[in-house]
Amino acid sequence: MSARPVTLRRLGPADIALARALNALFGTAFSDPETYGAAPPDDAYLEGLLGREHVVVLVALAGEAVAGGLVAYELDKLERARREVYLYDLAVAQEHRRRGIATALIARLRAIAAERGAWAVFVQADYGDDPAIALYESLGTREEVLHYDIAVATAPR
Fold first, then answer.
1. How far apart, in whole angstroms, are the C-alpha atoms of residue 49 and residue 67?
2. Which of 13, 61, 76, 90 is the most buried (most CB within 10 A)?
3. What is the C-alpha separation between 70 and 64, in angstroms, rounded?
């Protein structure tokens, strides 16, 4: 049996169910169901987020099922009148991998970034995530950087 073809779609405000399905896929793919499913945002939040031009949520659909997807954020720069697009999350369901879905999703993101006047798309990969590293190295230039999570300060009382 051949693999079912996929279609790519940018989610909008009416696509709350698909956004929830994508979050579930991320939770499974990243082995982190707590982050992606324990405290889901309400429909109003998702509707607002999906309506923002600087937030790009793409899904690859196999029929009506989410086979893969990505979330990216457009960042306006201060030093020049230009933008960068940060590819934050990208995953493909196990049964749909090795079919070019991730590459197709990134190609669509690159086209959207170009339409929006961005000069680069950037992404981080974790050490040991060899499939992601191989994919990103096939598409771009590797930079050795350090990443830090800085806790948000507590509000003064």
1. 21
2. 90
3. 17
Looking at residue 156, the DSSP 8-state letter turns out to be P
SS3 103: helix
Per the CB < 8 A criterion, the answer to whether 109 and 120 are in contact is: no
Supply the pLDDT for residue 2: 52
CB atoms within 10 A of CB 36: 20
Global pTM value: 0.88
Nearest 10 degrees: Cα torsion 84, 88, 94, 97: 10
Q: Taking the C-alpha atoms of 151, 152, 153 and 155 in order, what is their torsion angle to the nearest 10 degrees?
A: -150
Alpha carbons 15 and 12: distance in angstroms, whole number: 6
Task: Mention every residue, 6+ apart, whose C-beta is less than 8 A from residue 102.
Answer: 68, 90, 92, 135
Residue (of 102, 72, 113, 79) closest to 8 by Cα position? 102
Q: Which of 74, 86, 107, 89 is CA-nearest to residue 6?
A: 107
pLDDT along the chain (157 residues), means of 10: 81 98 97 94 98 98 97 94 94 95 97 94 85 81 76 77
Cα–Cα distance measured from residue 70 to residue 109, given in angstroms and rounded to the nearest whole number: 9
